[in-house]
Specification:
Layout: E1 16-25, E2 28-38, E3 43-47, H1 54-61, E4 69-74, E5 77-79, H2 84-89, E6 92-95, H3 107-114, H4 126-135, H5 152-165, E7 170-174, H6 182-197, E8 201-205, H7 209-215, E9 218-223, E10 226-232, H8 238-246, E11 266-275, E12 278-286, E13 290-294, H9 301-308, E14 315-320, E15 323-325, H10 327-333, E16 334-337, H11 341-345, H12 352-357, E17 365-366, E18 369-370, H13 372-385, H14 402-415, E19 420-424, H15 432-447, E20 452-455, H16 459-465, E21 468-473, E22 476-482, H17 488-496, H18 507-514, H19 517-523, H20 527-546, H21 553-578, H22 586-600, H23 607-633, H24 639-657, E23 662-664, H25 667-673, E24 676-677, E25 680-681, H26 682-700, H27 702-712, H28 714-719, H29 724-750, E26 752-753, H30 761-771, H31 783-802, H32 807-836
Parallel strand pairs: 3-8, 3-9, 6-7, 7-8, 13-20, 13-21, 16-19, 19-20
Antiparallel strand pairs: 1-2, 1-4, 4-5, 9-10, 11-12, 11-14, 14-15, 17-18, 21-22, 23-26, 24-25
Length: 837
């Protein structure tokens, strides 16, 4: 059987009609002449193995990927290709298999950046609207929680909430239930049925045939990038579907279980272990047995597995093959397959070979060096046995389908010769054919004497695969099943009928902690700013005890005026760092602008000449920012390479205009910029106002959300419709305009055109921004923190002078500040990531 019978043709035009769609990557066909129609008010399931082209087809439909050929018709309009913004305007919403969420931003900001303003306008309090969107999909988190602290299931629910909020005419769901528990799945299916009843068309991509039967009206099967047919769900059997999906008939999904005598020797014994999220768990297993861990999602299963992998400390004993292992020893000897393969299972910047080999490098050692031949032979053999489909060993692991990525994770685990193999949701997002192979691999590993522990939210999977199943509820082991006792009904009944109390140190406790305002503040962007304020006050208090003149009007004015020039440039430097880039040209640009000013803003110059000079400075600054952005976005320079090019060029241009100092700045101009209110320079007051205004736009307006979204995750930002190129270009132009403000202040301080002035501001501005808490990885930071960082640096320099210390101490203190800030922020972020994991 190669095709299904033709389905009944609807009387209304299709919501989505894709005709002759083909997609090629480097000459390799991902889709070939695919045509599919989605009818109004139907749930249309798309089935196929991993790599069959399902997600690629839906990425084309949602504007994430342009087709190589073919056409797309929506609402009577025909397009060659779509963009995410255009698709959204046509009523398309998509829930990605890997959530397109922005970890550095809050839950509320993720909703804001992804949804049109109309969702929140005209409906009362916007926070209440946002909370109702979350409640509608069963997501109970605080709007101010940072998304990186959410679990994978919560991120999926957030993605689903964004999709339903659009009230789409076409809703695309790509493996939406993979990490969800039964209660969340039931709620999702209810929302889908409500949407369909209201006229929404739904495309449902899944690997679970039971879900197709429960939800879908029609089904289309893809294999090897081609359509194998379309039919009504009630007119095709599961066996026929499976045969078309995998191209062959599967005799059995699960491998045969091993038949062991009851007195067989134990090779795995866990006695009374307790840790974060679970207490007093005991497990015993014999050679050849696979042990399953069941329970409602979030009841300590993942925490138990992480402890057995040595990723969490625990009390109690773990004995494998007669040898007791500590958490530290398990960390090096156990192999762990995490549920979130993208964040924890794979290194997405490395290729297939590197991901598979990285845990087994000692095996490939030849004397003191690694043997490339040994590595290639071992990795090739392992990936071949696992039937991994990849263009080559050196292909990026991100280019593989989900099932093949999971096989790479398994290959790495087996290559490390583990004493214990632990798998958390091993078949999540994996097609039926790949599942069969994964089950076989796990069974063979167990038969070879490696204890295998599996946690799964699919009770049917545990029933078919495992020889022994422990059921957990609220961190406690509530029942152990073995042999014929292991049935889907028994597993579910044990999980939902338990009356145990929650472990207070478990995930429940973490959720409570995450809901407190103080914890959110510590995890937020303003904690570094508060720390800087404390350091500034303490340092000022100490210097005052050593020199009573420290808080004199002259010293305060001098210190704040000096901080203004650095502060303005630091505000500009904040923008590219938020974007995940950097701008090394800010220092030379400031010096070059001062040199330009020295030809126009002179004593005796007319107002028109001065105005012309200022306009020329603004135009130069904007041009430099634009050139930086074009080099980065369109010519594919790295931010360092692009801005370093301008760093060198601007320094050279400055010396071409003036090879020595010259051109005194207009005295009246300097005097006007040096006015003060008491000891506080007016320029400083203006700069604080600008910083506050920039902070407002960063937190409360789409420009700021887009900026931080691009820095947090560019691909996710593009997926939710952020205009990435435009955001980056505007960001670098604004950076240079902030440098213009810094140059205005700088030229009043030095009073002369100096081609060497400004270069030092590049590193000091980066230092100020980093001290203020802006991440070098992008996505998080504050303008307020950058200004405070500039003030602290200036204060340190001033303090060394007031205390009579040499210039060496200036560099020592700056270096110590940077080192302390880097350590504090890095440790805090790593702890947040660990807690989230």
């Amino acid at each position: 059987m190669n095709t299904f019978q033709e389905t009944e043709t609807p009387t209304r035009p299709a919501t989505l009609a894709m005709s002759g769609i083909s997609k090629y990557y480097a000459g390799v066909a991902a889709l070939t002449d695919v045509s599919v129609e989605i009818h109004p008010g139907e749930v249309h399931a798309i089935l196929g193995e991993n790599g069959a082209g399902k997600s690629t087809l839906m990425n084309i439909a949602s504007g994430q990927t342009p087709p190589s050929s073919g056409s797309i018709a929506m609402g009577g309009q025909v397009f060659d290709s779509l963009t995410p913004t255009l698709a959204g305007s046509l009523g398309v919403a998509i829930v990605h298999q890997h959530p397109a969420v922005l970890g550095d931003m809050t839950v509320e900001e993720n909703l804001r950046v992804a949804l049109p303003s109309s969702v929140f306008s005209g409906q009362g309090d916007s926070d209440a609207v946002a909370q109702s969107l979350l409640t509608g999909v069963g997501l109970h988190v605080h709007l101010k929680d940072r998304v990186e602290t959410l679990t994978l299931a919560q991120k999926h629910l957030l993605e689903i909430a964004k999709a339903f909020a659009r009230k789409p005419t076409l809703l695309i769901l790509d493996e939406p239930t993979a990490p969800l528990g039964r209660e969340a799945v039931d709620l999702l299916f209810g929302r889908v049925r409500e949407a369909v009843a209201a006229g929404t068309s739904v495309v449902y991509i899944t690997h679970r045939l039971a879900e197709v039967r429960e939800l879908a009206d029609r089904v289309t099967v893809l294999r090897d990038g081609k359509v194998r047919g379309t039919a009504n769900v009630d007119e095709i059997t599961d066996d026929a579907l499976l045969a078309l999906i995998v191209g062959r008939t599967l005799e059995s999904t699960f491998p045969a279980k091993i038949d062991l005598p009851m007195d067989a020797q134990l090779n795995f014994d866990v006695a009374g272990i307790s840790g974060p999220g679970f207490a007093d768990v005991s497990i015993a297993g014999r050679r050849g047995e696979i042990i399953g861990v069941a329970g409602v999602v979030g009841n300590g299963q993942s925490e138990l597995l992480r402890a057995l992998a040595g990723l969490e400390s625990f009390d109690g004993t773990v004995t494998i093959g007669g040898t007791a292992y500590t958490p530290r020893e398990l960390l090096h000897r156990a192999a762990f397959m995490p549920a979130d393969r993208h964040r924890e299972g794979l290194m997405m910047s490395l290729n297939v070979r590197e991901n598979a080999a990285i845990s087994a490098l000692k095996k490939f050692r030849s004397t003191y060096l690694l043997s490339r031949g040994k590595e290639l032979d071992a990795v090739t053999e392992s990936l071949t046995e696992l039937s991994v489909k990849a263009p080559s060993l050196d292909a990026p692991v991100g280019a593989l389908s989900g099932g093949n990525q999971q096989k790479v994770v398994i290959a790495r685990a087996l290559l490390s010769d583990p004493v214990l193999l632990i798998a958390d949701e091993p078949t999540q997002g994996v097609d039926v054919g790949a599942r069969v192979e994964i089950y076989r691999i796990l069974r063979e590993a167990s038969a070879n004497g490696i204890p295998v522990i599996i946690a799964s939210s699919d009770a049917k999977e545990l029933e078919g695969l495992c020889d022994r199943v422990i059921v957990m509820s609220r961190g406690h082991l509530v029942r152990t099943l073995s042999g014929d006792e292991i049935t889907e009904q028994a597993i579910v009944m044990a999980a939902v009928s338990s009356t145990t109390h929650t472990i207070q140190l478990a995930m429940d406790g973490k959720t409570k902690a995450r809901s407190t305002g103080f914890r959110r503040f510590l995890q937020g962007d303003y904690a570094p700013s508060a720390l800087l304020v404390a350091v500034i006050v303490v340092l000022g208090g100490y210097v005052l005890t050593q020199n009573p003149q420290y808080l004199g009007s002259f010293n305060i004015f001098s210190m704040l005026m000096t901080a203004c020039g650095l502060g303005a440039i630091a505000l500009g430097q904040t923008i590219p760092l938020l974007l995940g880039g950097i701008d090394l040209s800010v220092g030379p640009l400031a010096g070059f602008l001062v040199v330009i000013a020295s030809f126009f803003v002179n004593d005796g110059a007319s107002a028109a000449t001065i105005a012309l000079g200022l306009l020329l400075m603004i135009a130069t600054a904007a041009t430099v920012g634009l050139v930086n952005a074009v080099l980065i976005r369109y010519l594919k320079f790295t931010p360092i390479a692009a801005t370093l090019t301008l760093y060198i060029a601007l320094g050279g241009f400055a010396f071409l205009l003036r090879d020595t100092q010259g051109g005194y700045i207009n005295t009246d101009f300097t005097k006007n910029l040096s006015t003060s209110v008491g000891p506080i320079p007016v320029v400083f007051i203006v700069l604080v106002a600008i910083a506050l205004l920039a902070e407002y736009f960063l937190r409360k307006r789409r420009w700021g959300w887009n900026l931080r979204a691009v820095g947090s995750n560019e691909e996710s930002a593009r997926s939710v419709g952020v205009p990435v190129n435009r955001t980056v270009i505007l960001g670098y132009v604004l950076t240079s305009l902030f440098v213009f403000l810094g140059a205005i202040i700088l030229m009043t301080q030095i009073g002369i055109g100096d081609p060497a002035a400004g270069s030092s501001y590049t590193l000091t501005s980066i230092t100020a921004v980093v001290l203020g808490g802006t991440s070098l990885l992008g996505g998080r930071g504050t303008f307020i923190g950058s200004l405070l960082g500039a003030i602290l640096l200036t204060q340190v320099l001033n303090a060394t002078t007031v205390l009579g210390l040499g210039s060496v101490f200036q560099y020592v203190f700056q270096g110590l500040l940077i080192l302390i800030a880097a350590i504090v922020y890095s440790v805090a972020r790593s702890r947040r990531r660990k807690a989230a994991a």
